[in-house]
Every structure is written in C-alpha cells, then in structure tokens.
Predict the structure of ABC transporter integral membrane protein.
Amino acid sequence: MSNIAVKIDKNKIEEFISDFGWPRLIIFFFVVALFIAAPFVGINPDSSIKDVLVRFGQNGVMVLAMVPMMQSGSGLNFGLPVGIVAGLLGSTLAMQFQLTGPAGFFGALLLSMPFAILFGYLYGLLLNKVKGEEMTIAMYVGFSIVTFMSIMWLILPFSNPTMVWGYTGKGLRTTITLDGYWSRILNNFLVVKIGPFFEFPTGAILFFVVMAFIMWLFMRSRTGTALTAVGSNPGFARAGGVSVNRCRIIGVMMSSIYGAIGILTYQQGFGFIQLYNSPLYMAFPAVAAILLGGASVNKASILNVVVGTFLFQSILTMTPSVINSVLRTDMSEVIRILISNGMIIYALTRKSKVTK
C-alpha cells in the first residue's frame, strides 16, 4: 500500500510540474533565493518588499488587461499600446484642462475611455480579419499606433506650459512631470508606514483589487461566459448561437480599456507621463508577467495575474540589489529581457506543441 501511495504522490508531483512548467518553478525558487540572500548582502528586506508592492500596484492593471483578450481566443495582446495610447491621450487632455489631485486622475480616466473604446473596436475589427495570426498582427498594430502618435504629439494643439517644449511653445515633451497634478495620488492614499523603511501603498493595491473584482464580475456575466466559450471552442459557441466575432471584439475592447487604465495607474506611481517611443515595448513585460503566473496562450485568470505580477516585479526589484552586490555589476536589464522573452517563447512553443 505504501508503494502505491508513493507512486500516486510521485505521479501527482510530475503532473503538477508538467502543468506548471519548469521555467516557472525555477523563477519561483530564484525569487525565494533572492529574498533569503538579501539580508546577507546588506539589503533591508523591508525596503525591498515595499518596492515590490509599489511596483505591483503600478503594473497590475496592465497585466490584468491581458485576461479578456486571451479568454476570447485572440491570443496574447501584443497590441497593448493601443490601450496605452488612449490612456496617454486622456492624461494629456486632463493636464491641458488643468485638472489636479483626484479630479485629475479620475478625469484622465474618464477622458481616456472614449479613445479606448473606439481604438479597441477598430483593433478588434482588424483582428477578426486575420484569425490565426492575431499575435503577429497585434504586435505591428502596437508599433504602428505608437509611431503614428509620435507625429501627433508634435502637432496636436496642446498649450499647457508644463507639457510643451519651452523653446517653441509647441509639441509635447518626451517626459512630462505629474508634480502638482496627480503624482502618487493612489500610492499615498491611506498609506501605512511601519518603521523607517516599510510603506504599504494601500490606495494602489485597493485600486487593483477593485479593477480585478470588476474583471471577475465581467468574466462571470453572460457576456463574459460567452467570451470564454468562444476562446475555448469557437465552433461549439457558434452552434449555441453566440456571435464569435462580436465576442472577440468585446474582449479586445475590454483589454484596451484596461490598458488605458493601467497606464494611468503606472503614471501616478512613476510620477511622469512618457510619450513618443516609450510605450513601444510595454506589452512585453505584461505578457511575460501573466505567462509567469501560469496562464496559457488562450486561458488566463486573475490568479495568474496576481502571481505573475508579484513574481515578475520581485525579480525586477530584487535582482539589481542582490545580484549587483554579489557580482559588482548591473545585470538587472539582462535578466529582465531574458525572463520576458524566455517566458513568451516558452508559452508559444507549448501552444504549438499542443495544437500540432
């Protein structure tokens, strides 16, 4: 009996490793090792955990934007800059109207919604025309809209002196400070300070929880259930009277809306609006984070978002401090690129293996 029990347990362990994947397990234990090693190389663990939580609050909503598009069967949203550009338009318009504080942040959010809905609808129509090649087309859509907006940022009639180039009075600056507007408006809301180093960004975490709860409600609504059915089995969904194209467009629009909200959340924590080519590769960390959390190309959950964002941001936070202290060289960017692209390659190769 004991041999049978051991064999069953061994099978369960092997099945878990196969489902979860060796890359994710290796990264998980790497993160644990970084936290354990931190005190031994003179790094304050309180400060490190605070930085991880701040980064989690800043980036969580952008990772959450991946869920509806993946669930609808449209694949990984490499076109996330479509939603990000909508958020940038909302934030720059809010600054142009001199909105500050909470009114500035939520005003930017409201102003970005029409752009996110319109861009998401057009983006969804395009992806419906290229079924089977969504991820490739999405990447070039993201690159194209960022490049197009690099021209528009120069010619749009903004006049706020804080935003425009000082020597011409025209064209938006590459980086615009949010000081005096809504810098850290969420991070500082109900912030909890423990000791000299640790701060809990209550507002940013609460905002992520609210956005995750809204996504959870949406995915369990009638529309969300139909969207999931389309992603799981389009033929079965079509036979049940579900419009596949309509559901895919809704998934893309939701992803774009959350992308717009996500960049606004990122901006307030970072303290700056970054324009021109800055959004070009913002989709890759979000894609890598949700894959790191255990999502597959066509299936994602909010738990995947939470786990993946925490692990990915832990690596970005702990690697520079711990590894640099040990090796006396900066390897943080190398490790970030390695993990981001490595997780994307791993997920895509697993997909091709299953569908072959």
